[in-house]
Amino acid sequence: MLRGKAFFPILPACFAALFLILQGWAFLPATFGFEPEKPVFLYFADPETGRLAGESRRFKPAENRAAVYSEIVNALISGPQGDLEPTLPPETQLLALYEGSDNTIFVDLSADVAEKHPGGVKSEVLSVYSIVNTLMLNSSRIRAVKILVNGHETETLAGHVDITRPLKARILLVR
Question: Are the C-beta atoms of 84 and 44 separated by less than 8 Å?
Fold first, then answer.
């Protein structure tokens, strides 16, 4: 009888461990949600619809999530390879990228992202949400994206979109 009772405390622990593994809270593979055979969609401006459209890319596994996310943001800054239009000034540099404890991704960009931005409401919306949507729609782990400029919080990139708080994806901007 004692053996049967000793088994019951182990059973909830096993279920808890299984739950954590299925939720992605345990050790993850080197790609951290970005599998090399699975495409990642970078969101650029679609000149025909005036919205964001995804361009498929593949990325190699990296040693940690921040490295993968950084590679993705750098590819977004480099611009599209097809018929879509860039959403960020090409002079923009990714200065840092890190993940907060609440799965918010902090993207620190050089001042060029604001200083060389073409301006306008639509352009700024597409710029901001190309970053946010690209990160969030490719990883279920990310809860929000916070954009910084030169390591500092700023109100907007070009006077229209409030980036003082972490942002969530806007799927309605994607065609």
Answer: yes
pLDDT along the chain (175 residues), means of 10: 52 48 40 62 97 94 87 97 97 96 96 94 97 95 97 95 97 93
H, E, C per residue of 39-97 = CEEEEEEECCCCEEEEEEECCCCCCCHHHHHHHHHHHHHHCCCCCCECCCCCCCCEEEE
148 SS3 class: strand
d(C-alpha 69, C-alpha 106), whole Å: 10
Distance CA 45, CA 144 (A): 21
Amino acid letter, 6: A
Query: What's the rounded Cα separation, in Å, for the pair 147 and 135?
Result: 12
Closest by alpha carbon to 142, among 169, 115, 118?
Answer: 169
Given a contact cutoff of 8 angstroms between Cβ atoms, the answer to whether 131 and 89 are in contact is no
